[in-house]
Design a protein that fits this description.
Oligomer: single chain
Strand order of the largest sheet: 1-2-3-6-7
Largest sheet: 5 strands, antiparallel
Number of helices: 5
Distance between the termini: 31 Å
Number of domains: 1
Shape: globular
Bound molecules: zinc ion
Radius of gyration: 16 Å
Order of helices and strands: HHEEEEEEEHHH
Helix content: 25-40%
CATH class: Alpha Beta
CATH superfamily: Peptide deformylase
Number of strands: 7
Length: 191
């Protein structure tokens, strides 16, 4: 396994079109090894997720995992999840304001409206079909990662640029209010 370099905002790979993987490609050592690297790189950087374009591969693969994460201590846990060719369908018009950060946007966070409930359809790393609903803060994490596969960064969805903050100033000025809001969302959606 290799920890890969993470592309940062401004690199064209983050804005490029991505291709789906077929079953045979997905089963190949090349792409199975790539998925191992993606997981390892996410864990090394304490990310809640990582998408293939962030490590310079224009394919529709992303990974998510939230354990005891020092970058996001308030986030509900997500077991290690590999999504291949994911598709999200928004299930309700209701949105919440999520304070997001991104490994490809160093030291910046901002408020992004996210749908509260999405249907997730994808393959797992073995090519088996997945179909379930993600809710609340967790739904926001899914939307952030799948956006990367469509060449979007959270910056593109920030409505009020006055919410942009460094991580240190997030902790100083915004963290407590956001954590209170997270509690309300988690209470409502269970995640
Ligand atoms: Zn990101």
């Amino acid at each position: 396994m290799t920890i890969r370099k993470i592309a940062t905002v401004g690199h064209p790979v983050l804005r490029s079109a991505t291709s789906e993987l077929g079953h045979d490609e997905l089963a190949s050592p090349k792409w199975q090894g790539f998925i191992d690297d993606l997981i390892e790189t996410m864990r090394d950087a304490n990310g809640a997720g990582l998408a293939a374009p962030q490590v310079y591969e224009s394919v529709r693969v992303c990974v998510l995992e939230v354990g005891d994460n020092p970058r996001y201590p308030y986030k509900p846990k997500i077991p290690l999840t590999v999504l291949v060719n994911p598709r999200l369908t928004v299930l309700s018009d209701e949105t919440f304001d999520n304070y997001e950060g991104c490994l490809s946007v160093p030291n910046l966070r901002g408020v992004v409206p996210r749908a509260c409930e999405v249907r997730v359809q994808a393959w797992d790393r073995m090519g088996n079909s997945l179909d379930y609903i993600a809710r609340g803060i967790t739904a926001g994490t899914y939307q952030h990662e799948v956006d990367h596969l469509d060449g979007l960064l959270f910056l593109d969805r920030v409505r009020d640029t006055k919410t942009l903050t460094t991580w240190a100033d997030f902790d100083r000025f915004h963290r407590d209010a956001f954590i209170a809001r997270v509690g309300t969302i988690v209470a409502k959606y269970g995640s």
